[in-house]
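Support request from a user on the community tier.

User writes: "When I paste my structure tokens into the form, the page sometimes reloads and wipes my input. The last time it worked, I copied everything first. Here is what I submitted, just in case something in the input itself triggers the reload:"
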């Protein structure tokens, strides 16, 4: 597990002891193509990093149903909202579009680790901020496309 974590660019700034602590709350899981990792509205429990494969991230839009937002590829982080202090349920649905292998980190312990070790917390939250910014941009572009399609129908 330590070697797997050390190969992830997301964790390059962490010390060996921080990587070692992180390895204790991580597990490797698999999901077959078509299976749902989690659904919008589910309770949060894990932060995920895809190691192999691909997953579709989708959100329910009233009047439109489940709408594709983006593909999550290897080294992408899924379920980042588990580290935010306000959101305690999933904000999207994630479905494997190919067989996937991924890391799962216990979100409750990960939040505690960030609180107890501020250097660790700063590195993790800086990475999460980059992910959130990227996802907001992707979602905004998707929203623009939905609005464009809606305008063309009237």
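"...and here is what came back when it finally went through:"
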């Amino acid at each position: 597990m330590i070697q797997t974590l050390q190969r992830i660019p997301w964790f390059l700034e962490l010390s060996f002891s921080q990587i070692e602590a992180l390895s204790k709350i991580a597990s490797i899981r698999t999901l077959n193509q078509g299976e749902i990792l989690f659904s919008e509205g589910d309770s949060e429990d894990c932060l995920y990093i895809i190691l192999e494969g691909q997953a579709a991230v989708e959100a329910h839009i009233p009047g439109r149903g489940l709408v594709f937002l983006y593909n999550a590829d290897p080294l992408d982080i899924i379920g980042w909202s588990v580290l935010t202090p306000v959101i305690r349920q999933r904000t999207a649905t994630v479905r494997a579009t190919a067989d996937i292998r991924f890391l799962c980190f216990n979100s409750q312990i990960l939040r505690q680790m960030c609180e107890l070790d501020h250097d660790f917390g700063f590195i993790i939250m800086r990475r999460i901020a980059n992910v959130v910014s990227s996802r907001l941009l992707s979602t905004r572009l998707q929203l623009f496309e939905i609005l464009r399609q809606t305008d063309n129908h009237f």
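Agent notes: The reload is a front-end session timeout and is unrelated to the input. Residues 26-152 form a domain with the Jelly Rolls fold (CATH 2.60.120.10). Residues 25 and 147 are 42 Å apart (CA to CA). Escalated to web team.
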